Structures are given as structure tokens and as C-alpha cells.
Amino acid sequence: MKMIKKIIIALFAVVPTIAFAHEHCCKCQCCEEEKTESTAVTEDTTPAQTPATAPSTTVTPSTIVTPPATVAPSITVTPSITVTPIVQEPKPLYFPLVISFMSNELFFGSKKNVSTTFAFGVIGSTLYEVNGIQASSVYNYAHNAYGLQSAGVFNTATELRGFQSAGVFNVTSGKASGFQAAGVSNFALGGITGMQISGILNVSSGDVKGAQIGLINICSGNAGFQFGLINISNNGVCEAAASYTSNNNIRFSVSSGMQCLYAVLGVTTNEAVIRGQEPWFSNHNTLTSAGLGTRAKSGALSLDLEVLWNQLADWNDNNCDLWENSFFSGRVAVGLKPIKHFAIFAGYTAMLECDYNEEAFTHYRTRLQYDYNDLFTIHSEFDAGVRLSFN
After folding, report:
1. pTM exceeding the 0.70 threshold for the entire prediction
2. What integer pLDDT is reported at residue 79 of this predicted model?
3. Residue 311: exposed, middle, or buried by beta-carbon count in 10 A (0-12, 13-18, 19+)?
4. Domain ranges of the chain
5. Are 99 and 85 in contact (CB under 8 A)?
6. What pLDDT digit, counting tens, does each position of 304-327 carry?
């Protein structure tokens, strides 16, 4: 009994302790849960501060930061430079005097160019450079001709600084500076600074800074002065004209040269010849003219002054006196050039009749004339027509 009593007392002593421990544990968990809920409610239900109690704050606008633009890397292109080595020509072999028969026979086997001061050839002379005189009976050739080239037939040079004289023709393929004189023709294929004189033809493939004198003068550039029957240049006069006169005649003319001085060739005949009813140069029906003129220009307007020698010829009359059928005349014309290469003009011609050429005006009749005290008579003629330019 005592044992049972002790067990019951022990149980009563342990049960309250277990209950208290359980109650305490539940209280702790509940407290923790309540504390967590209380914290959440406090955060959710915290009232916003009123403007009256809120401290004064300055709101700074947000600064928009723009990212830097992407800069493409600069590329420097260095041009490639090709260095071409300068090939120097062999130094000329100098001899003060070179004599040859047909060419430069003495130095044919030498690779060096030959330079000399005096060169004489029985038939011809061929040298690299002449700084003096090169003369032969037929021909001369020099790459550089600095001085005088004289030949019976022709002279040729690549570069000329001096004088070329030949019986037939002279040719300079490069620059020419000096004087070219030939019986037939001169050619300066690189232009010339100086003068060309020939019996027939002068040609310059470039500007002529000087003069050309010959029957035909041709310059592909600008010419300083040209004098001949046919003159062609960019800055000169090269024209053909046709006009109808107050005496019912038709006049054709060609003008070529420089504006300061140009040559004029003309022919005047009547309507019957143009229509084929009469042959040319018969019955004194054809008047030929030749002379010189000068021109003044202002824009599209031009003023020409010409002095002409006129000749009435009759090829069927062997007894025709050319002197008695010739006369001088002066002409003035005003032209208008509305477009390039084309102009219209009107002119006046005064023809001089004296005692020696009265016969000429019995054939070449004029409607207007004025007699100056029986000393001379002025015959007048007006014309109007068109003019074509070739430069």
C-alpha cells in the first residue's frame, strides 16, 4: 500500500510540471505568432506623415544621362607612293669638231651620245646635241639643236633653240624657240616661240608666240601674227562671205589672217554668169580682187576696213590690157554675229577711176558715181550678205 501511495504522489507531482511546461511552450509559440502578426500589421497600417508634420524637402529633377555616342574609329589612309628610279641618260661624249660622210659613222659603235660645237657632213650629220653649228649638203638631225642647223634639203630636231635653214623643209618634233626658214615648209610640232618663214606652208601644233609668214599658215592654237594667202588660227580671221550688190552683181570673198591685218581674196560677177547664161571671165564680166584689211570688234559687232586691187579679165581677149582694166577700191563693212560661225553684214565700196583705167568702167558699170573736177571719179557700190567663220 505504501508503494502504491508513493506512486500516486509521484504522479501528482509530475503532471502539473508537464502541464506547466506545455502551457509555457504554447504561450511562447503564440507570442511569437502574435509578435510577427503585430509587426506586419504595424508596417501595413503605419499612417503616412501629413504635410504639416513632414519635413521640408527640395525635389531635384532627375538628370538624364545620355550615353556617349559611339565614335567610329578614324581610319587614316596613307596613299601608296611608288618611287620610280630616275634613269639618267649617259653623259654625252664631247668632241669640239665632228666630220662625217653620211652620218655619225665614227661613233656608231659607242653607246654614249655625242655632243659637239661644230658638225659638218658631206651628205648628212646625225648627233645627239649641237651647241654651235651643224651643216651638211643634204640633211641634219640633232636631238638638241642649240645654235644653227643648215642643210640643202631638210633639218630635223627634237628640241630647237636657235635657227633652222633648209632648202625644202624643217621639222622640230618638240619645243621650238627661234627661227625656221625653208623654201617649201616648216613644221613645229610642239609650238614655237619665234618665227616661221617659208615659200608655201608653215604649221605649228600649238601656240605661235611670234609670226608665221608664208602662202599658207596653220596654227592649232593662238597665233601672234600670220601673213599669207590662207591663215588659220584660233584667234584669227578665217571666213567666207557672199553678198548682193547695188549694181546687181554677186560678190564672193575669202578673208584670213589676224584681226589687226588679214588678207582678202574676192570675185564679183553678174547674175547671167551665176545662172550659167554666160561663161566666167568672158566679156569682162568677172572682177577679181585682192587686198588687205583690218577689223575692230566690240561684242557681236565688227567694223572692217579694206583696201583692194581689182582686175577685170577677159580670157577670150588676147589684146586685153590688164593695167587699163584695173583699179583700186576701198571698202568699209559693219557686221553682226548673232551666233558662233555666222554673221550678217552690210558694206560700202568706193572705186577709183582715173585717166589710165577709164576702159575698166566701160565694162564694170555702176549706178552711183561722182566726178571731182575731171580729176578722178568715185564709183559707189553697196552690198549686203552673210559671212561664215571657220574658227
Report:
1. no
2. 58
3. middle
4. 93-232, 237-389
5. no
6. 999 999 998 777 777 777 788 899
